Amino acid sequence: MQKNLVLAVVLSSAVYIAWYSYIGKRPMLNPASASTAQSQQSAPATSAATALNVSGQSTAAAASGPLEADWAKRSVELSLNKATYAFHPAGASIKSVVYQGPVSPVELVKDPSPGFLSSFDDLTFTLKSKTTDSVTFEARAANGVTIIKKFILNGEDKINLLEITAVNPSAAPAVFAAWNLKLGPGLGTVKSEEKENPSLWKAQYTFQEEGKKFPTIKTIKENQKAGSWIWAGVDNRYFLAAVLGGDLKRDALNISMPEIGGKKAPLLSMPFEAELLAPRETRVWRVEFYIGPKDYKLLQALGHGLDRSVNFGFFSPLAKIANSALDYFHKLTGNYGVAIVIISVLLQILIFPLSWKSYKAMAVMKKIQPEMQAIQARYKADPKRMNTEVMELYKRHGTNPLGGCLPMLLQIPIFFSLFTALRNSWPLHGAPFIFWIKDLSAKDPYYILPLVMGGIMFLQQHLNPQTGGDPAQAAMMKWMPVVFTFMFLTFPSGLVLYWLINSIWGFAQTMILQKQQALKDKAY
After folding, report:
1. Beta pairing class for 126-130 and 239-244
2. Fewer CB in a 10 Å sphere around the end CB: N or C, the chain?
3. 405 vs 137: which has the higher pLDDT
4. What predicted TM-score, i.e. pTM, was given to this entire model?
5. What is the mean pLDDT of residues 389-408?
6. Among 144, 84, 476, which residue's Cα sits nearest to residue 292?
7. Between residues 45 and 140, which one has the greater pLDDT?
8. Hey, what domains does the chain have and what are their CATH numbers?
9. Element housing 406 (H / E)
């Protein structure tokens, strides 16, 4: 029973890590959503040819001549310390956001058509004004209603503002037609995450449930009725683009899935109903938005429950403690790699009594294995008598088949919590450790850490007491170091460092405990 539980724990760990790292969560949509998205976008031929670079000029190979010159001429940039926004009259939307990350600039707008916060895509806007922190566009609808979109940037890593104004200049009532505010599709990320980025895209929203202290976060599904949501947006592992609900109190959030590079990406659409404007009436909608990194401490400071976008996994309370510990030891050492080493060692010291108990239980189980097999052979026709004799055997040797497994089960929440905290830590971006490890959020460029980790795991598994039993299970246990090594080859080096320290500690601990057990057996 013990070996089955140990095997289950190891395999469940592998499944957890593989699921969390490679599969993730995606909104489940029906196949019709892609066609819906295409009908919502304007100028599809332009979409493939209008990607913007840092300067706001076209970089797509398909763009040529007047089109390229038009984008270069008409794009409007607002540059902050950490971000450069590029706006364009086509939909009066954000066509590019280049965030100056700690490693390199990151383009967050994956597809400039329709662009972030686009609306009224069928209208041609003109630039009315530009300041150091704002840009204003204006258009006129067919019935004469004037539409003004003004973007006000309050600074990098801040909550910004979009003001949409509808003006009826005539002496007669006018209908302000129904419209949508869009966000997406998809969201850019750092180079080290580009390959898996499409599997991490999600459209989410938060709302406050009665009786709960913190907002609840949910993945948006097609034609989601969201009630009075706090914020809604699209995100990936490290970045978030969100609109705050504020006074809008929208009760519907629609999502479609257009394709970007052959991958479906969530495009969030917030519908607004048609309204009747009285003569000379002016109506204003104020939409606050955030586009930037999912830095947990930053999002906490910004409020509105934006920090809920940081996924701390099933054991989120423990993961948040681990995240705080990471920040604390970084302040002491000035190196996130050293902070990871310290946390790993402290955790091993903390659980050492459990590890010692587990090892002793496994050693005793190995010692009594011949007697157990004899009992099983003698009473195989009488299961009840066999169980009684086995329990008596445990009692004589002062052991419990669960004695080596329960401590291991107690460690699982700790390990998974730290794993999740490290996996989603924005501060690890561009954070160096030593020598060839220049970025703890990227994989080891030479695969040294995962290969060393795998070798040590193999040696530790070889040294652990083998309790016999099913040869197939024993073979699977021997292959686990190989499986984990391949899994960790592309993991961020910060995660591999954490697992490596655990493996080194476990290997040294096993050797010491084996030596102590041998001396104890010799004394008897």
Report:
1. unpaired
2. C
3. 137
4. 0.77
5. 72
6. 84
7. 140
8. 2-16+318-523 (no CATH), 31-311 (2.70.98.90)
9. helix 406-423
Q: What is the spatial distance between Cα 337 and Cα 323, in angstroms, rounded to a whole number?
A: 14
Once rounded to an integer, what is the mean pLDDT over residues 492-500?
A: 89
Give the Cα-Cα-Cα angle 448, 454, 459 (nearest 5 degrees).
125
Report residue 58's pLDDT band, with 50, 70 and 90 as the boundaries: very low
Written as six digits, the tokens of 87 are 């706006």
Tell whether omega for the bond before 185 is within 30 degrees of 0, i.e. cis: yes
Distance between CA 426 and CA 186 in Å, rounded? 19
Span 492-521, mean pLDDT?
81
Helix 406-423 / helix 352-367 crossing angle, nearest 10 deg: 130
* CB contact at 8 A, 160 and 290: yes
3-class DSSP state of 184: coil
| Antiparallel, parallel or unpaired: β 126-130 and 134-140 | antiparallel
- Asked whether the beta carbons of 422 and 495 are under 8 A apart, the reply is yes
SS3 state at 155 = coil
Report the mean per-residue pLDDT for the chain: 79
Report the amino acid identity of residue 240.
L
DSSP bridge pairs for 151? 135, 162
Angstrom distances, CA of residue 355 to CA of 137, 460, 501: 65, 13, 15
Find the angle CA(20)-CA(23)-CA(26) to the nearest 5 degrees.
105
Buried-exposed string 14-39: b where 16+ CB fall within 10 A, e elsewhere: eebbeebbeebebbebeeebeebbee
- Read off the tokens for 66: 């007047």
Q: C-alpha distances in angstroms, 278 versus 176, 180, 211?
A: 10, 22, 41
- 15/178: higher pLDDT: 178
What pLDDT score was predicted for residue 476? Answer: 64
